[in-house]
From TrEMBL, chains A, B, C, D:
Annotated protein name in UniProt: Triose-phosphate isomerase
Isomerase listed as a keyword: yes
Domain of life: Bacteria
Keywords of this entry: Isomerase
GO terms assigned for molecular function: triose-phosphate isomerase activity
Gene3D superfamilies, per database record: Aldolase class I (3.20.20.70)
The species this protein was found in: Enterococcus termitis
């Protein structure tokens, strides 16, 4: 399968294990609408069991799983088969998230498998040293979140974001950088994109908001505003 | 959700990572028909991403995942949320398969989560000592396969099967025992049930057969023949 | 090698990774003296690299490692070879501590290896369900600490201790029970032994005390006092 | 502690879990003599429990453990504390060997801990992609063995060795490269060093030889011969 091209700036809705089934589908449909309205690429992460259904009922989203394994068709119990998720409509996967760290050799092999199947890789690092190492593997997207900020509603400071953007690009210029640590307001969204990130997004800042769909809409709209402002400069 | 009752002797089709998407669905539909025709409970294991679709398009199968995690609704990237699979129509999970061994405390916690969500647990052990330990946790079903036979097409000998059946029942009388190591012929199926197993099934014996659906039908039919013969005794 | 017999009530000094080198040796020598003076069996856990030296320079202690692996003589990088530790004077090992949980099959295999080498196994469980499962493997000693109390200075309540003692003994009457969660005063020591534990001990309650050797002496002495009182009853 | 300087070409005796206790000590003493006689740096890997004793009874060897953890002084059961091994005389550690692969974030943190304690890091990669990623972390030494050759007595071919040497040096010029896959003859030793490796060594090629000490001597001598020949060119 041919890997989908990503247009920056993009957005990433990552409900982790907060949402599943109907609720996940509802937010996905809203995100799908926003992707169309604002002409923006949106990664939407799903529980594996929801991937097929959400892929079927949406048009624009990049259906994304939160981890994938390197196994091949054959034996192996309970692992995430690349061919299987691809057939279900999945187009991207997170790898090595701080909440799902993997072994060095496993990361290398799984990225090779993703390449074979045309699956976009969003690789995560929780320090600049780790980001540099992983960047040599040329993932499509990288996330560099200081582990201690995940889930806190605190954003990485501008200097950290600039530093990680540069560290990644110095090693792998084509890798897009996602800055999403603690994003919960449109000011956070603006700051992330203005500091040079190729994408931003959130988890608790969206799913734990009073009105998740409204918050999501504001955030996505803000990304496109900054995008348009940056074009004019 | 209320846990589904299992009627012995049952059958288990475990395609592991051999099948996914359309091919998995096709075999599942055939198994579903057999479950109805022969009035037998059939566990059918799926890739997570296929669970929803197969659950929707079948009526009788016990949709089974090959592993599950203990996490709860909230954070956590890339794990198998019990609530999520349950909402997608999954009714059972394998745990601690030799190809996916887990930690002692993780097994205990995941079995508690399965109980909360009404998910049937098929717990695996690869030695009699391990079987006895796990039986204290009173899983719904236990598999006791000598690891060295998995995927070989060699069956456990009758004495091993009887020994494990007894070891499990001595600790947990209500736990059903699945003997499925290397089952590839109807003679293997007969031997497993006659030696006292509550269920049998297969992986490569079915999916690698020249005509998987035909082989599956013969095996399921044989289980019901032995069932009827045993009733008459 | 023949496995050493343990005499209850025993004591366990578990410095974890708080002490190493000279400081560990100093506390070990003090514990060794106490073992002699009070005629009591004392498990003393060591960093692997300190095992040989502490074994050489003490006489009475049961030199104990904090984890062991199941590998056999041959390949394998960086694991704890049973034959190797045994040759260095180690007589016991913790297994499956809450800070080092292991897989079910690994626990079974490692306990078999320990048996082969005559190494005493102190197996840990962090719930009653886990304790019952592990007790079927008949470890020499079991620890049942509610994970949430470890390192807190809070002791398990008497009812929890009695419940775990009974749960273990019901399954494996010869297994000795060590109650050591949050032990930091001689009152805690007394309570543990009076509630039926075969042994008690501590980590932070000793190594973080103002005068560790003095605290250790008081605790060991208290165990022997309770021992003598119980004999008289 | 100040990290020891390594002089290339060096040799590495890696008995893995083949040797322990007296036998390990005996080979270590022989290697120690050779290090002196041939004025060459020799890494000698040990079972943790043998580290102190071998360090005490040798003068020239670089006492090396086969894995190390990132934990700090305090809690933590059964892990390898950097401060502890350093105090016992250990000067180097392997990390991420194919027989002990570790997580990306664990590798990064453990290398930081090694730096803090002045412990030489020998980092392993089992593919060129992995080698490049790890080289960004600037380990002191790197091993690039195609996993499939380990323990086979087959050496990496010259082209693979040259390719990995270059891949590592391109990213981290000061990192020394150890080529040790399947080294079992003096011809293998010569080829490794002539192909540009900074060091070579072996496991089964030495410990499973009819006369390990004699084989070791021949290999070490050959390294120094090639060293002297290369100087003259």
């Amino acid at each position: 399968m041919k890997k989908r091209e990503i247009r920056a700036p993009f957005f990433c809705v990552n409900p982790k294990a907060y949402l599943y089934g109907e609720e996940a589908l509802k937010l996905a449909k809203a995100a799908d609408e926003l992707a169309k309205t604002f002409d923006i690429d949106i990664f939407f992460t799903v529980q594996y069991v929801d991937a097929y259904r959400i892929a079927k009922e949406t048009t624009n989203l990049i259906i994304t799983v939160q981890h994938m394994d390197a196994l091949t068709v054959g034996a192996g119990m309970g692992y995430i088969l690349p061919e299987g998720i691809s057939a279900a409509g999945v187009q991207a996967t997170f790898l090595n998230h701080a909440e799902h760290p993997i072994k060095v050799n496993q990361l290398v092999k799984t990225m090779q498998r993703a390449e074979e199947e045309g699956i976009i890789v969003i690789a995560c690092a929780d320090s600049i040293a780790e980001a540099r190492a992983i960047a040599t593997l040329k993932p499509d997207v990288m996330v560099c979140e200081p582990t201690e900020l995940i889930g806190t509603g605190k954003v990485s400071d501008v200097s950290y974001m600039e530093q990680t953007n540069q560290a990644v690009k110095a090693v792998s210029p084509k890798t897009l950088v996602l800055q999403a640590a603690g994003i919960s307001t449109i000011a956070d969204v603006r700051q992330a994109i203005e500091s040079g990130a190729d994408g931003t997004g959130g988890t608790s800042g969206i799913v734990c908001a009073t009105d998740p769909i409204h918050t999501l809409q504001e955030m996505v709209e803000e990304v496109t505003k900054v995008r348009d402002e940056l074009k004019e400069r």
